[in-house]
Every structure is written in C-alpha cells, then in structure tokens.
C-alpha cells in the first residue's frame, strides 16, 4: 500500500486541508508541543483503524484523545473526577494526559478493550487550530513507525510515514521533545504511567497528595507482570544501533569506552563531551543535568545514531528525577533495559 504524501507548512491553508481530511475519516500528521502525532477522528472507528495500520501498532495499545476545550469532554468521558479537574486547571493546555473513565462516544478502536480513556489538551497552536477547524476530538499517537523513536521534526515523520498517509503538516521542531506525562485518576490513588515534562512533583503539588509511580517507569517489568499502561511494556523508541547505558561519571564512561575500543563503538553523550571522546564518533543529546534540554534532543539524537550507521553505542546516563525521569524512561527502552553501573 502506498499513497501520495503531501508535506506542507502548517499555515492557514495547511490547517484547512488537515481539518477537511479529518472530517472525511482520513489520518494526517501534525506537530504538537511534545512530539509529532498522527490524528484521526476519535469517534470514527474506521478512521482510527487507519492509524494502527500506518504505524504497524499493536492493537492492544490504546490511543490518547486530544481536545481543545473541556466543553468537549461530555461523551468522551463518563465522569470528570475532582482530581482530573485539579490537574486540568493546573496544566491544561499542556503536555499532560489524564486517564479517566471512558464515555460512550469514543470509538472502541481507541481504547484497546479498556474502560478508560486518556485525554489531553495540547497547547501547540497548530493542533488547537486543527481541532477547532475540524470540530473533531482526535486520537493521536506519536507519528513514528511502531517501535521507532518518536518524531520531533516533520522530516522525521516523513522518513517513517511517507506513502502511508496523505498529509504531514510541518510546524518546525517540537519544544518539549518527549511525549506527554500520562497520569491516571481512576482507582484509589493517582498513578503516574509515563513521565514527561510535567513531573511527579508538579502533579503532587497540584493534587496535594502523593502520586504513585508505576513500576514500569524506571525498570523492566518482570516476566508475566501486567502493564496497567500497555505502551510501557514494549521495547520502544529504539534505533537500529545496540545501545548500552553506562551509569557513572564522565571519566568512568570514557575509560569504559576506551577499554571496549575493539567493538568500534559510538557514544551518545552530553553537550560538549563529544570532543573529549575523540576518536569515537559521538552524538550529543543535551546538557548534563538539564532534563528539559535532554528531552528536547533525545529522539532526534537516537535517529542521528542510525543515520551514522548500525553499531554498538554507549550512552551517558541521565538523572532519574524531575524532567530527567522522562529522558531516562525513554532511553532505557531504546537500550532494551541494558544498564551497566560503573
Ligand atoms: O505527547 C503525546 O502524548 C503524544 C502527542 C502526539 O500528543 N502522543 C502519544 O501517544 O505519545 P502514544 O500513543 O504514542 O502514547 C500513548 C501512551 C501509551 O503508552 C499508552 O499505553 C498510554 O498512553 N495510554 C493511552 N490510553 C491509556 C489508558 N486508557 N490507560 C492506560 N494507558 C493509556
Ligand atoms: Mg508513541
């Protein structure tokens, strides 16, 4: 299956074209403040199915529904719980997805058999314009082929999706760079399912209570353990290179890489470190200790490793708290959970 893909600027004409396609039950790619997404009308099951086909996504991984106003919630959720109201007031529009009890109008194809639905109100002006012009709440996963790093530029969407959907809107690079924080308010305690730009501490401050950390965030689930958020169980975000994360200081990292020079390794390191690691080829992914900067660069850097060719890659380890938790969470999946403590 190959269809003609148009890559066009996210201007007024582009937004109008995207909205018309969505209303016709088509899928399109567009920028958000987190990563690029592939959108389909969340109430139209056959449109949503096209997303799974285009991405090669497993059917048991549910999609996030995007809105531009809380007035769109009736029908999408069966209840707007008090905790969700607090979080929405604090962080919407913005990079936060709230898991709530599912309403009757969401297509079954979005929910993968769950009785909950993830809702997000993005802040990016292009998504908001497309929602407004189409009148559609839309389901939108990240616009990568399933298993690949999420795309943060229209060119990266093109590399994965060209021939698989009719339109990609180019709105420039994404400001946040990692996908939204996913938090569930269904169940006894609020639970963080996926870390992002909005941190655990941000959520706890807004809610005035403790938020549980889903065990799948910082380590591999044990064999047979059930992921409450299906997306967290897959090897993910992975370049073709074999990545191993080395946890330690820069000096320890450099010594380890030098000791393994026979493997002809490349390095995924922090800004400014590349020159000090010569002659090994390096890709930098943001300043050490600066989670926001690392988040903005991590997915592009994973793709850059592939563009340099398949190889053994050693990666510097980000911190595990604040926004860095989101970077660590993506990187351990890209590394298939291979972490070596130095
Ligand atoms: O920033 C984002 O959220 C981006 C942009 C495009 O908005 N979208 C995105 O979607 O990252 P996706 O499909 O790549 O990731 C959705 C994540 C998955 O880990 C999925 O398992 C989880 O959210 N999820 C969705 N609905 C869920 C539900 N009802 N219960 C638990 N987890 C859910
Ligand atoms: Mg994704």
UniProtKB/TrEMBL annotation:
<feature type="binding site">
    <location>
        <position position="194"/>
    </location>
    <ligand>
        <name>ATP</name>
    </ligand>
</feature>
<feature type="binding site">
    <location>
        <position position="180"/>
    </location>
    <ligand>
        <name>L-threonine</name>
    </ligand>
</feature>
<keyword id="KW-0963">Cytoplasm</keyword>
<dbReference type="GO" id="GO:0000049">
    <property type="term" value="F:tRNA binding"/>
</dbReference>
<feature type="binding site">
    <location>
        <position position="237"/>
    </location>
    <ligand>
        <name>ATP</name>
    </ligand>
</feature>
<keyword id="KW-0548">Nucleotidyltransferase</keyword>
<feature type="binding site">
    <location>
        <position position="150"/>
    </location>
    <ligand>
        <name>ATP</name>
    </ligand>
</feature>
<comment type="similarity">
    <text>Belongs to the SUA5 family.</text>
</comment>
<feature type="binding site">
    <location>
        <position position="120"/>
    </location>
    <ligand>
        <name>L-threonine</name>
    </ligand>
</feature>
<comment type="function">
    <text>Required for the formation of a threonylcarbamoyl group on adenosine at position 37 (t(6)A37) in tRNAs that read codons beginning with adenine.</text>
</comment>
<feature type="binding site">
    <location>
        <position position="116"/>
    </location>
    <ligand>
        <name>ATP</name>
    </ligand>
</feature>
<dbReference type="InterPro" id="IPR006070">
    <property type="entry name" value="Sua5-like_dom"/>
</dbReference>
<dbReference type="InterPro" id="IPR050156">
    <property type="entry name" value="TC-AMP_synthase_SUA5"/>
</dbReference>
<dbReference type="GO" id="GO:0005524">
    <property type="term" value="F:ATP binding"/>
</dbReference>
<feature type="binding site">
    <location>
        <position position="142"/>
    </location>
    <ligand>
        <name>L-threonine</name>
    </ligand>
</feature>
<dbReference type="GO" id="GO:0003725">
    <property type="term" value="F:double-stranded RNA binding"/>
</dbReference>
<keyword id="KW-0547">Nucleotide-binding</keyword>
<protein>
    <recommendedName>
        <fullName>Threonylcarbamoyl-AMP synthase</fullName>
        <ecNumber>2.7.7.87</ecNumber>
    </recommendedName>
</protein>
<keyword id="KW-0819">tRNA processing</keyword>
<dbReference type="InterPro" id="IPR005145">
    <property type="entry name" value="Sua5_C"/>
</dbReference>
<dbReference type="InterPro" id="IPR010923">
    <property type="entry name" value="T(6)A37_SUA5"/>
</dbReference>
<keyword id="KW-0808">Transferase</keyword>
<dbReference type="GO" id="GO:0006450">
    <property type="term" value="P:regulation of translational fidelity"/>
</dbReference>
<feature type="binding site">
    <location>
        <position position="140"/>
    </location>
    <ligand>
        <name>L-threonine</name>
    </ligand>
</feature>
<dbReference type="Pfam" id="PF01300">
    <property type="entry name" value="Sua5_yciO_yrdC"/>
</dbReference>
<dbReference type="GO" id="GO:0008033">
    <property type="term" value="P:tRNA processing"/>
</dbReference>
<dbReference type="InterPro" id="IPR038385">
    <property type="entry name" value="Sua5/YwlC_C"/>
</dbReference>
<dbReference type="GO" id="GO:0005737">
    <property type="term" value="C:cytoplasm"/>
</dbReference>
<dbReference type="InterPro" id="IPR017945">
    <property type="entry name" value="DHBP_synth_RibB-like_a/b_dom"/>
</dbReference>
<dbReference type="Pfam" id="PF03481">
    <property type="entry name" value="Sua5_C"/>
</dbReference>
<dbReference type="GO" id="GO:0061710">
    <property type="term" value="F:L-threonylcarbamoyladenylate synthase"/>
</dbReference>
<feature type="domain" description="YrdC-like">
    <location>
        <begin position="12"/>
        <end position="198"/>
    </location>
</feature>
<feature type="binding site">
    <location>
        <position position="66"/>
    </location>
    <ligand>
        <name>L-threonine</name>
    </ligand>
</feature>
<feature type="binding site">
    <location>
        <position position="61"/>
    </location>
    <ligand>
        <name>ATP</name>
    </ligand>
</feature>
<keyword id="KW-0067">ATP-binding</keyword>
<feature type="binding site">
    <location>
        <position position="34"/>
    </location>
    <ligand>
        <name>L-threonine</name>
    </ligand>
</feature>
<feature type="binding site">
    <location>
        <position position="57"/>
    </location>
    <ligand>
        <name>ATP</name>
    </ligand>
</feature>
